Amino acid sequence: MAYRVTFIPGDGVGPELSEATRRVLEATGVEFDWDVQHAGVDVMEEFGTPLPEHVLESIRKNKVAIKGPITTPVGTGFRSVNVALRKELDLYCCLRPCKWYPGVRSRYQNVDLIICRENHEDLYAGIEFEQGKPETHKLIEVLELLSHRKIREDSGISIKPISVTGTQRIVRYAFEYARKFGRRKVTAVHKANIMKFSDGLFLATAREVAEQEYSDVEFEDRIVDNLSMQLVQRPEEYDVLVLPNLYGDIVSDLCAGLIGGLGVAPGANIGDDAAVFEATHGSAPKYKGMNKVNPMAMMFSGVLMLRHLEELDAANRLESALAAVIEEGRSVTYDMKPTRDDPTAVGTSQVADAVIQKLQG
Ligand code: NAD
After folding, report:
1. 107-116+162-258 domain in CATH 3.10.20.30?
2. Alpha carbon distance 94, 271 (integer Å)
């Protein structure tokens, strides 16, 4: 039976990347019944919002979606569609596998990391108080009273909530992933030595989950600054990383850099009831319609989706086909060539052709 999957082409370069990805996913032989839904700047005029309710409904119903990048409209009062999707569908885990493939130009080889970033809490919860506003002065007064510390009157304040519930589920996700895919170790990342009641709680909760529920998987923790240094020195020492939101954001870009950059960095946002697969990169508007940018990050996100659907054979075949095209280095986009103006670089759709040829060969 065909999988009913919500398919969101996105905007900017999204539609071309999505089309290339749809073609390679279908070439695996797995059958899809795409539920095409549009979101982003291009639908704002028609629906008055970049994320119409029927798009959310479609994902709730189908439980799985693949999406192209979507531009965050600046100065319109609309929040990011990407952030809204994660909130509305309670997609609490941002999964970012960072794996190096032979042929990718990078300073590092043999990097194979899985990043599980908590998606809702921490300094990204959006609880902010602007400098100079009456409510900010009020908050400062209360905080000074409760904490017996002086806060400058001209401060802006962002709140960092980290909960036991939020931490338990992201840490469980990391361990479940490790078990399911035979990974050797989970590392919890934090700054618990400084932020005892937020990061400290994250660490204590992670330790408890590790000890009580997953004693079969190795567990360790690292302070985020130390981890950052070690990742650039010895990335092969790490395996699955689980992090609160802010560190997860920064470390996942660091790791995308280790494996060759945005063109090959896939991702997924996953909750208990739905999962949305998408590349790490954005809509690169300046390249819109040029058949130029690299579709591999979105195609690798498709590999993740196939694994999520338990189509393991198809996932492995698509991953191998992508790896073969990368290793040959011929049918790759400009960003994967030795120089950015290499005349032998191919376009987005030609990468799809080459991947399909490998799948069929
Ligand atoms: P971006 O990732 O779109 O592009 C930055 C640069 O990276 C590009 O100019 C290009 O040189 C390179 N790049 C990106 N993707 C590439 C690819 N597939 N192949 C080759 N090169 C690639 O980042 P930005 O310019 O900061 O953001 C543009 C828009 O995308 C913004 O509106 C932002 O909010 C949005 N965005 C969306 C998502 C998402 O949909 N999940 C994620 C990040 C940013």
Report:
1. no
2. 9
Provide the whole-model pTM.
0.94
Out of 67, 99, 191, 292, pick the active-site residue: 191
Q: Are 300 and 55 in contact (CB under 8 A)?
A: no
pLDDT in single tens digits along all 361 residues of the chain: 899 999 999 999 999 999 999 999 999 999 999 999 999 888 888 898 889 999 999 999 999 999 999 998 777 667 788 889 999 999 999 999 999 999 999 999 989 999 999 999 999 988 999 999 999 999 999 999 999 999 999 999 999 999 999 999 999 999 999 999 999 999 999 999 999 999 999 999 999 999 999 999 999 999 999 999 999 999 999 999 999 999 999 999 999 999 998 889 999 999 999 999 999 999 999 999 999 999 999 999 999 999 999 999 999 999 999 999 999 999 999 999 999 899 999 999 999 999 999 999 8
Q: Where are the domains of the chain?
A: 1-96+264-361, 107-116+162-258, 122-159
User: Which residues contact ligand 1 via a Cβ below 6 A?
Assistant: 69-72, 82, 262-263, 278, 281-284, 286, 293-294, 297, 335
For ligand 1, mutation pick of 283, 336, 349 (most atoms within 8 Å of CB): 283
* Annotated catalytic residue, options 199, 249, 335, 358: 249
61 catalytic, yes or no?
no
Annotation marks residue 353 as catalytic: no
Q: Which residue has the tokens 């899809």?
A: 32
CA distance 235 to 232: 6
Tell me, in angstroms, the distance from the centre of ligand 1 to residue 71's CA.
Answer: 8
- Which residue's CA is the closest to the ligand 1 atom numbered 41? 69
- Strands of 236-296 (E only): list them: 240-243, 268-270, 275-277
- For the question of residue 124 being annotated catalytic, the response is yes
Q: Is 222 helix (H, G, I), strand (E, B) or coil?
A: strand
**Is the CATH code 3.40.718.10 the one for domain 1-96+264-361?**
yes
Integer distance in angstroms from the first to the last C-alpha of the chain? Answer: 25
